[in-house]
Amino acid sequence: MTTRRDCEHCEGPMPITARRHARFCRPACRAAAHRAARTIPAELTSRPRWIRRTSRKVPVAVDGSAASSTDPGSWSTYRDAARSTAGAGLGFVLDGDGVVCLDLDHCLDDEGAVAGWARGVLDAVGGSSWVEVSAGGDGLHVWGHGRLPGGAGRRLQLGDGTVEVYATGRYIAVTGRTFGGTPQRLGDLQHVIDSLL
User: Fold this and answer.
1) What is the pLDDT of residues 86-108, one digit of tens each?
2) How far apart are CA 6 and CA 89, in angstroms?
3) Global pTM?
């Protein structure tokens, strides 16, 4: 019995003729993934807190074994994670060192327009920090620096939407698909976190 493999870029099924070590379903996905890799800020790629993930967002190590957002022994460098064929994509572990992620769930419509509640968060960020489209294609991850009082994460209702704020003990699926013209750097998000809380 063979296990279904998914393309690392579009997350669609790999062709049945694909070689065992193939990572992309077609040349266009390979090219798009390599362009995307160049958009991930160095502030993330320089930290050895990368894992792989399955298409269902289960964390795996670069060798395909189980990974954990709380076990540094299962993490790796960005370079090793990007070269690995385990799973369907990349993930970055938040460990409380000041890197945070605001996860804006289901805020993009089919045409890519941003919902009003999420637009308010993006306006508060003010284009100072990197934003990527989530693996599902209908959400956004705002990456930056800040502290989350009292722990690992919070799930907040904001109008018709949900914002999840994470700082430690979690991993975030990273696509590298930069949203709009956001910069390839992590800005200060503390004022945004404070206003959300």
Assistant:
1) 999 999 999 999 999 999 999 99
2) 9
3) 0.81
